[in-house]
Amino acid sequence: MSRKNVVFQKLVNTLLEHVKNHCKTGDYLPSDVSLATQFNVSRTTVRKAIEHLESLDLVRKMDAQKTLLAMPEAHHFFDVSQHSKPKEKLVEEHFISLIQSGKLKPGDKFSELELARQSDTSTVAVREFLIRFSRFGLIEKNPRSQWKMKNFDEAFVDQLYEVRHLFEMHSLSNFLQLPEDSDYWQELNALFIEHKQLSLKMDTDYEDFPRLDHKFHGLLQKAHPNQFINEFYDIISFVFHYHYQWDRSTERERNALAVQEHINIIGKMLMKDYHGATLALEKHLNTAKQSLKKTAIL
Amino acid sequence: MSRKNVVFQKLVNTLLEHVKNHCKTGDYLPSDVSLATQFNVSRTTVRKAIEHLESLDLVRKMDAQKTLLAMPEAHHFFDVSQHSKPKEKLVEEHFISLIQSGKLKPGDKFSELELARQSDTSTVAVREFLIRFSRFGLIEKNPRSQWKMKNFDEAFVDQLYEVRHLFEMHSLSNFLQLPEDSDYWQELNALFIEHKQLSLKMDTDYEDFPRLDHKFHGLLQKAHPNQFINEFYDIISFVFHYHYQWDRSTERERNALAVQEHINIIGKMLMKDYHGATLALEKHLNTAKQSLKKTAIL
DNA sequence: CAACTGTTTTTTATTTATAAAATTCACTCA
DNA sequence: TGAGTGAATTTTATAAATAAAAAACAGTTG
Questions:
Q1: Which of A78, A198, B112, B274 could cross-link A9 (Cys pair, CB 3.0–4.6 Å)?
Q2: Do residues B129 and B138 lie in contact, with contact meaning Cβ atoms separated by under 8 Å?
Q3: Which CATH class for the B154-296 domain?
Q4: Which residue ranges does the record assign to the HTH gntR-type domain (chains A, B) (predicted)?
Q5: Mean pLDDT, to the nearest integer, of B191-216?
Q6: Cβ–Cβ gap B7/A166 under 8 Å
Q7: For chain B, where are the alpha helices, taking DSSP H only?
């Protein structure tokens, strides 16, 4: 069998939707090229879609003029509901779920074929995902042998946090050197207020913390971008997200504490108290590290 | 067509070589299992190899006892000379050579198929290599579209050096906190002498510097290992190696300067002069950064 | 000549097939 | 019981095939 023409079908639907909202019968449609760029596909696909519309008697081509003959009806659309997600996504979701449900534990071995079957994809898709995923440093593979979950030991956490410490301290120091009139101070202030608000309704909305956490780090990154630091932060986020799933029982307390620590850090930052902010961040990182060790290490 | 039995053929040759050096006619050979572990292949392959030796009348199996009938001769060996290297390696070498020869420049696009043909491998091998390689941050790809060399601009160098600065300063500081009697001080001293020696014959042996450079960083890493920092150093090394190829004219001066700077740093370290070592390292990193910018940016 | 179209060529994504090699299973014998 | 064997099963590595989609090419027209 060969690949499905999802790009084509999706384009037809998008086109119909677009026509329904912006055109009326008798209008001329834009050129192939502009449609292609507008919907981010190649011209080949656009042409195939237009041909399809012609065969539905919705469009007529005359001398390279595309005339809209009639408005599209519901039955003209492709049923796109059973297009499965991109393979890549399927594999990822399945693999992550295996990890989070504890079916794959540190030290375990697993095969590509097995994953491919379970996630209803091909070994190629699986393998490519695993290669990409291996940058997180959680899996490894020897040639002609299966993949293996690396041991998630204390040394790993220590090394992760060593780097995180370096990076976050660096980001903090950079932020504090921003000029007084930088817009980022405004943003930081807004974030401070958001934290305050969340802290008041923590007992119900504690699941909202990760969003703020992400926003905070995003702000520091935006103020002084660095692709390498940013990439590393992905790893941190993943490892966190990944292991905290194992023990959701203490999530509320953890988040409550973290919010307070964030408020402390941001408060010191807003007061330009470099030393205080550093100490507060130090404390925050340390809490996080201990908490990770407690829940994650077997 | 399907895959070649290289593992098998190589095992046969290794086995013959081993027998030639360690056994004599009439000896019993070790069990399948021990051979398999010794030569790091599966038992299946061992059995196939032994069967092959039987068919050559070199070995006879009786009741699971493997007896050596005769010593192997030259003609028993497989001709392994035309086994091409592993696909992975082929792709890598080809791709790197494209980059180093300047045929692939920042901003260029290239296709998987093209690379596969040129390097005499498959698109799968190419794609897997490219995915792995993309962690260096030098290439990128959109779905359904070709790969593209990222722009190697000043921001990239700055970001690279920002992280390098953080890491190297951190490593230095850790090293200086080693106890007086740590063996690493001895190693550092030996390295100091090596540097001194090289500096005397720099005009002829300047190409030997990268080895020392690598050794220096290796020593710092060994004293305080961190997989994330280590991995990042791979990126640094590669980017360096990669871009310096573009301008070999000044290599001698660059290396001569770098050796002096290393001597300076190590000297200060051995004297436990923290402040001096930091300054010296700072200077070294700065030289390297400027030099990279000068040769690499278009 | 620049934007467009029709046509042709390449390239990517995905599936299938197959031998090599690894792994598992069931059994044997010291 | 535990290391070892023979046979069966699974998995990996690799090639090949094909349709979808992208990109390149060659004209055409305002």
A1: A78
A2: no
A3: mainly alpha
A4: 5-72, 85-152
A5: 94
A6: no
A7: 6-22, 32-39, 43-55, 87-100, 112-118, 123-133, 154-176, 183-200, 202-205, 209-223, 227-244, 251-270, 274-296
Residues of chain A with CATH 1.10.10.10: 6-76, 87-149
Decide: B78 and B13 in contact? Cβ < 8 Å: yes
pLDDT of B197 > 70? The answer is yes
Whether A166 and B162 lie within 8 Å, measured CB to CB: no
CA of A68 to nearest chain B CA: how many angstroms apart? 30
Put simply, the answer to whether A137 touches B232 (Cβ < 8 Å) is no
CB burial of B208-228 (b: ≥16 within 10 Å; e: otherwise) equals bbbebbeebbebbbebbebeb
Which residue bears the tokens 């000029």?
A179
What dotted CATH number matches A87-149? Answer: 1.10.10.10
Could you tell me which chain B residue has the CA closest to the CA of A224?
B159
Across A101-118, average pLDDT: 90
Report how far residue A72's alpha carbon sits from residue A54's, in angstroms, rounded to the nearest whole number.
Answer: 12
Enter the tokens of residue B10. 């190589």
Confidence class for position A1, pLDDT limits 50, 70, 90:
low
Is a pLDDT exceeding 70 seen at residue B298?
no
For residue B43 the two structure tokens come to 């038992």
Question: From the CB of residue A8, how many other CB atoms can be counted at a distance below 10 Å?
Answer: 17
Which residue's alpha carbon is at the shortest distance from the C1' of C13? A3
Cβ-based contacts of B135 with chain A (< 8 Å) = 135
List the beta bridge partners of residue B59: B68
pLDDT tens-digit readout, B6-42: 999 999 999 999 999 999 999 999 999 999 999 999 9
Residue among A128, A156, A167 minimizing CB distance to B131: A128
Check CB contact of B137 with chain A, cutoff 8 Å.
Answer: yes
Report the half-sphere exposure of B40 (CA within 13 A, side-chain side): 5
**Does residue A121 reach within 7 angstroms of strand C, measured from its CB?**
yes
Query: Tell me, what's the pLDDT at A297?
Result: 58
**Residue ranges of chain B assigned to CATH 1.20.120.530:** 154-296
A103: CB partners within 8 A, 6+ apart: none
Chain D, protein-covered positions (CB within 7 A): 3-24
Q: For residue A226, list chain B residues with Cβ-Cβ distance below 8 A.
A: 159, 162-163
